[in-house]
Every structure is written in C-alpha cells, then in structure tokens.
Amino acid sequence: MFCLQLKQRLFSCSALPRLISACSASTSNKDKLPSKVGQVKKNSDEIWKERGKLALPKLQRDEDQIPPKRYWVEDWKLETEDEKYSPLKEYGTNTKKWDYYSKVIWPPNYVVPETGLPKAREVFHYVNSIHYSPKRMWYICQFIRRMNVDEAIKQLMFKKNKGTIIMSGLLKEAKKLAKDKFYISNPSNMFVAEAFPIQKFIVKGMRRHAHDRMAKRRFRYIDVFVRLEEGSPPDYKGREKLLNVNIVYLVFLMDDGQEPQQLSELEQNALNRKRRLRQFRSQLQEEEAPRPNDGQEDESVGMFVTFRSYKPIDIKVPKEIEVKKEEEEHKQMFLIEEKIQSQLEDALDSTVKETVDVTTLAPRKIDWDLKRAIQDKMAILERRTQKAYAQLIRERLESGNTDLLASAVNSAARVDEYQDEE
What we know:
- The chain is 43% helix and 15% strand.
- By secondary structure, the protein is an alpha+beta fold.
- The longest helix is centred in the last third of the chain and has 25 residues, at 375-399.
- The termini are far apart.
- β2 (190-208) and β3 form a beta hairpin.
- Among the domains are: 2-28 and 64-237, CATH 3.90.470.10; 250-288, no CATH class; 383-421.
- The chain has a 3-stranded antiparallel β-sheet with strand order 1-3-2, with helices on both faces. The protein has a two-stranded antiparallel sheet with strand order 4-5.
- It has 13 helices and 7 strands.
- It has helices at residues 2-12, 16-24, 44-53, 95-102, 134-144, 149-156, 162-180, 265-288, 319-339, 341-348, 368-373, 375-399, 402-421, and strands at residues 122-131, 190-208, 214-230, 247-250, 261-264, 301-305, 314-318.
- The model is unreliable at 1-38 and 242-260 (pLDDT under 50).
C-alpha cells in the first residue's frame, strides 16, 4: 500500500522522470538487499499483523528513515501529452497510471523495507467506461477485498446482477493475464489486494413524465481497478470451519472402486445405510430368482408383475397359481351377476301394477302456498281487527244508541261470513 501511495505522489509532481531515474540509479548502501542469513520464515498470521501495523497513524518525526526503493521503469514522456486531462494534471488514479504500474521491474528477491518481507508479484488490471453506479460497485469491491481470487469468483457468481458479473469477468481476465503475460505459474495462489471504482464521466439526459413534465437523468460511467497479489489472504476473509462436526478419516474401498475419502460422521452413517440397503436388495433378488435349469426355461412358469413400491421387480410364478387366480376372478364376476339379476328382471318387466285416476286427486287452490307464506302476518292483523271491533262497540254502548250498536254487530258478522267464504 505504501508503495502505491509513493507512486501516486511521484505522478503528481512535475519532476517525475528525474525522481524515477534517481530512484532506479541510486547506489547508496541502504539500497542493498538485506542478507537472508538468520531470517525466520513467518506464517500468514504474523505477516498480516505486521502489515496491519503500517496502517496505524504515526507522527512524521517518529517515522523511520526508509531507504529509496530500487526498481526500473521507463520514463514517462510528458512532452507528448497534449490532452486536456493528462495523467499529470488529473488527480487520483486513472487507466494510464494503472498500466504504468504494471511496467515497473523490481530486482530479484527484493525485500520491502517497511515489512522486511520479499516483494510479492502483482498484477494490475482494469475495465473502463462501464455504465454502472460507483456506490453499488463499491460494496462489491469491499466484499472481495483481501479474498482469494478463486473464492471471490465463486462468491460473486452466487448473486447474478450486473455489478457482480462485471467484477467476476474482470478477475478472470486478471488471472489469465497473470499466467500469459506475467508468467505466474499458479494464479490461483493470488488474492485481491485492491479493488475500487472511480467515476469517469456523467452523461446527462432528459426523461419525459406525464403532462409533459421533464426530469434530468444522469448516466454514470466508471472505471474499475483491480490489483492481484501473490500469497495467502488473511484468515478472516476465508470460509468458516464447520462446528460440532467430528471429522473422521476413513480408508475404505467402494464397490465401484473409489479412492479413500475424508468423510464426516453424518456422511459415514449415510454411506453405511446405503451399503446395508444394497446388500438387502441383492439377497432378495437371489432368493426370488429361479434357479437355472441347464439354460432351458420351464414352460409351466409364467410372468407375474407385482405393482408394489417396495418390490418393483418381475417375479416368475407357476402357471397353476396363475390359473387358480383367474378362476377366482371369474367366480367373483358370477357372484356380482347373481346379486344384480333381480334388479335386471324388474327393469325388463313392462306390466302395469296399479292405475291412478287423475280426477281422484284432491284439488288444490292456486294460491295455497301464498296463504301459507302470509299466515303469520294475517294472525297479527286478525288480533288488531278484533280489538277494533271491541273498541267500536264500547264507544256505541257509551253513547246509548242501540240502532248504531245493532248495525255495528251486523257489519262485524258480515265480515266474518265473507272471510269464511274465501
């Protein structure tokens, strides 16, 4: 990381060729390679602990004097840069600077002064002008950072979206570039040291809404940069080990001739169960299969198919048993015919047993069902009518007019007669 920051600082100054040539041509004693005598080989955890210390903040006066790095790279001809946004004027990383890092040649067995470790081989690769959001790509880059390149490709393929497909294709191209151009024999032994997007340009457009309303659109294009480094990544970026699973080492020979394998306890139990079922099935087949009679088949033996889920095979049975089963089926058919014989005879009989005269049927009124429907309402109305009669008679008795009383009683009697007639 410090090397990359130093290169970016060099590219941002005006005396870039002079500084690079001075670094590459230095003859100071500090530039000599440290002796390998007494060096202790460190494991992955110790290496990443020391690399993590480099990110801690430190005052400039407390920094150690780092000797200039020894490397060779071709001079950048700045006088040929006529573009408006040249790498010298533009801040940050761009595609030309990223290609320039790939041209740096380090001495063999070079030891990095900051870490005291040999310089690992690196591959710089990028893809430019991708129509995608830089914020969405940033999450993908942070996900695969410091992850093994093969593991990163597998994890990215689990989620099929535009960003993951672009990043997985970029990592595959970087692996191929490491083998073909940089002659790294085992590209799978590399991890993603850096991955980040940078916004390149924005194309503005318009979008039409309802009622002729217009809105701005911004099409963002980005460059995605990747740096692969040879070595093992930190352990916290790998897969977690299985818990509460006793790993046992079994050396066995399968019937199919497979090699010894490493199985868990659950897989071992499942394998033993499959073996027992296979042996049980073979025993059943041996018991039920007929014995060979000098290559001649017995004519008295027929084929009988059993439709059972636990015994889906064809069984040969003697013809005598088959004939007995057919006779039983015929007997059952005759029993069914005897049971329905009486019903068949009744259906064929066309004699008339009893005649019915239409005139003897009791006539019904047309509105008999209507009266039944309104019977409850008519009962309420009848009570109110009787109450009205009583009230009318009481009023006429109080007035003392006997003629009016007689006419009221007669009118009530006539109403009752009319209802009875209906």
